[in-house]
């Protein structure tokens, strides 16, 4: 492919690589940071890891700059590097798979799971990178049940819509291996997401529904009133609850609420709450702020991420939030 046949970005990248122009290299690659970070997050389910691996992608791209010939677009080349950086990361870690839990109805949990702040998503709502159903926690968790290379194949083929030949080239696999991995991955995803739509390439909604907004409002009001009964009314009987990274979990509303009460919720010292609505992973959420008797301010404690079905909370995933400034939430109220 001659320079005259290259796209503008590809030609500019090759010119920057030849001239060792680090500033121009940064300009050309930085525009892909948000979508590459989402890609790494889908692979790893951890926002901080995805930040690190996105940076690793740019470092590898600079080191490999002389190998770029424009046979693929710059975006495709960067995705290939990012995917393999994530696979290398996973090959070295033995703590990045679901772990069994002793809770009836729950198979495993991801203690390394972190929420993804919506403010850092790519801005273009048409990008497959921001499709709501492929950034929600249920999808991110389900993908973690796949072996890493199956995970990569599913994301490249079914989420990003790459043809099999392109995915095979990126992963240095045969077409038969890619097709086989995709079929096995789809079976696992159907098992993990039995009630969810699995055609992720078709248009998906991005905005919260009226029901979702109303339930978040009621959830916040119940918290601020210390209203256990009101909170209970918002939960489906078969609620799935997890609190990360501590590993607390429950598979019914009754067991979840019992655990919260035993842990001191709404008791002295844990009864002065202020909450604000927010979103993470394109999902409704509430940021929970607690004021203790010896503190004049409400301090960010947790974020509760809600999956709402027919006006009730079907899944509640809590995360410690005080140590996550990247969520973009105020530290105090």
Question: How would you characterize this protein structure?
Answer:
The mean pLDDT is 90. The chain has 333 residues and is α+β, with helices and mostly antiparallel strands. The protein folds into two domains: 190 residues, RNA polymerase sigma factor, region 2, helix turn helix motif (Rna Polymerase Sigma Factor, Chain: A, Orthogonal Bundle); 118 residues, Nuclear Transport Factor 2, Chain: A, CATH 3.10.450. It starts with 7 loop residues before the first helix and ends in a 13-residue tail after the last strand. It is globular, with a radius of gyration of 22 Å. The protein has twelve helices and eight strands. 37% of the residues are buried. It has a six-stranded mixed beta sheet with strand order 4-3-8-7-6-5.
